[in-house]
Amino acid sequence: MAKKTKFYVVWQGRQTGVFTDWKECEAQIKGFEDARYKSFDSLQEAEKAIQRDYWEFVTKKDSKPVLKEAPPNVGKPIKNSIAVDAAWNTATGDMEYQGIYYGTGDRIFLQGPFKDATNNIGEFLAIVHALAYLQKKGSDLPIYSDSRTAISWVKKKHANTKLVLTPRNKPVFEMLQRAERWLAENRFSNPILKWETEYWGENPADFGRK
């Protein structure tokens, strides 16, 4: 019996689109942080899916994996902290971000949506927003983000984005400039920590669009 052809949709990867070959799909997602993809049985299904949001196609089983036991060097997250996260709509390019006080689940801030942005930009802006917020409060609470890219940008005080400036996303670039300037002009002692999703579950600031 002939092997049934699968069609692979990549919403977030090195390249996005519909792929008919697994190796070609794998090349777009392997080693790519927060890659988003799914297989479909027909080209028609795949072409419809690429026009919609990834989270519409993630099942409850997909979105709640079995958590690994955290090793001693990871431990448990600090409750007295702020968690930040961003959401990016692959169909529209809209981005928004928020900050949540982990101890109670209360939302501290919500910004967006912003046109034609990226998830990494949202994650970066969320961290800087949290830093500025905590500085005003005179607080040294730690900040959790699940984006290694955004954390590295904050450490370098520069958002190394390849996004192209357009009239639609000009406000986003203005926010990036303000964020970078804030990092250059201010000192902070708040630890910026990686949220370990595979051990602790979903980031408390996740938008829950699964």
UniProtKB/TrEMBL annotation:
Cellular compartments per GO CC: cytoplasm
Residues binding Mg(2+) 2, per UniProt: 123, 146
Named cofactor requirement(s): Mg(2+); Mn(2+)
Enzyme Commission code(s) on record: 3.1.26.4
Keyword match Hydrolase: yes
Signal sequence segment: none
Chain positions recorded as Mg(2+) 1 binding sites: 85, 206
KW RNA-binding (keyword) present: no
Coiled coil (UniProt feature): none
Main localization (coarse): cytoplasm
Location in or out of the cell: Cytoplasm
GO biological process annotation, one example: DNA replication, removal of RNA primer
Note on cofactor: Binds 2 metal ions per subunit. Manganese or magnesium.
Molecular function via GO: metal ion binding; nucleic acid binding; RNA-DNA hybrid ribonuclease activity
Pfam families according to UniProt: Cauli_VI (PF01693), RNase_H (PF00075)
Domain RNase H type-1: 95-210
Substrates-to-products reaction catalysed: Endonucleolytic cleavage to 5'-phosphomonoester
Family: Belongs to the RNase H family.
Described purpose of this protein according to its UniProt entry: Endonuclease that specifically degrades the RNA of RNA-DNA hybrids.
Name of the protein: Ribonuclease H
Source organism of this protein record: Dyadobacter luticola
